[in-house]
Amino acid sequence: MGCGASKWKDPGVVRRGRPRSVGEVVVFLPGLRVPRTVDFPQSLGDHLDTSTVERLSALRATVVTMAMQESAMALKPRRRTTRHGGSGTANLLQALEEYLPVLLGLVKESSDLRNKVQFVWANQEDDSEETSMADAWYEVLSVLHLMAMVCFLQANSLLLPRSYGDGQGPRVSEESRRATVDVFLKAAGYLDCAVNQVLPQIPPEKRRALPVDLVEGNLKALSLQGLGQGVDMQLGLAIDNPKATLAVKRRLACEMVKYWQQIKDSIPELPLSDGWAKKHTLFVKWKYAEAKAAAYYFHGLILDEGNTEKSQEMAISSLQASEEFLKESKRASKAFHSTPPTSRSDPDKCHTCGTKQFRSDVFCWQV
């Protein structure tokens, strides 16, 4: 498992070899799964026309090249990004979108053809661990997973605080936050399709041989994470909008609680000796507690508007509960960022305004 890595640009620091830090984390995701080269002509040359085989080969070769480049860049601490997530991820996503329909044509062409090609993929976090499977549906599953991970990388880049030369300090713009909502929804859609449309096509014995990144629980958890973080962005925008009511903010916070509860229940149990598994567990714990803190906070503010003694007492109880969940989220956040590979974060500093307040990844409110 891994993190979408982004960090403040520091031109005075040059590192060599694999980084020991993943940088500042906004979006958690597994390490990219990278496809290995496949010889389509040898496997399909006698079964499909030459033009189709050549098109498959060309499209997949482009995906392999771009995925390897993006994987190499993701492991570098000084990754270059543009305001909209970097041309590398955009080009890779486009290449995957062009390859996927041609690949689906292969799996639907004939049940015999789907098992003719041995597809090989490896995770960037451990190149020695490759998964090979002679099933085109496995390739479809891997492509959808990679498309979702590329979306998460784009979201992470969009949420990296930037300086705008206006003297207000680095922050995440409203434009970037709005853009991430669509990116998160797109990632969730790819993963939902993988779970409900593709996994059932793979025989049970092959499903048991899938790598941990592609097991149903992880795919569901990441799909829900896309939905949860999309709502996270919407709540941040609502907080900044003076026209948004407390009821709207509470509803969004409660939706976040629902999604992070489902994520916690979906993640399969993995050995915590695996650093990435421990880091993922802490990330979910952090975001779940943070969502509950927000939900109780806004609920308390609504109760505080009541004129009865009982509503006032309930408001105090809700705000006290929010304070306790806030403390829990801060502890989980610090544990997450200090767990190897370490990541930099100021758990008390809002990315948007830079002030020392109760912060989510991209917004803040005071308790």
Task: Draw up the topology in text.
Layout: E1 33-35, H1 40-44, H2 50-74, H3 87-109, E2 119-123, E3 126-133, H4 136-158, H5 174-198, H6 204-207, H7 216-240, H8 246-266, H9 275-304, H10 309-338, E4 358-359, E5 364-365
Antiparallel strand pairs: 1-2, 2-3, 4-5
Helix pairs in contact: 2-3, 3-4, 4-5, 5-7, 7-8, 8-9, 9-10
Q: What's the order of the H and E elements?
A: EHHHEEHHHHHHHEE
Estimated radius of gyration: 22 Å
- State the distance separating the first and last CA atoms: 34 Å
Q: What composes the largest sheet?
A: 3 strands, antiparallel
Count structural domains.
2
Organism: Aegilops tauschii subsp. strangulata (Goatgrass)
Protein name: BRO1 domain-containing protein
InterPro entries: BRO1_dom, BRO1_sf, BROX
Family: Belongs to the BROX family.
Description:
Mean pLDDT is about 80; it is low at about 1-25, about 75-85 and about 350-365. It is built from ten helices and five strands; from the N terminus they run βαααββαααααααββ. It has two domains: about 1-215, no CATH class; about 250-365, no CATH class. It is mainly alpha-helical and about 375 residues long.
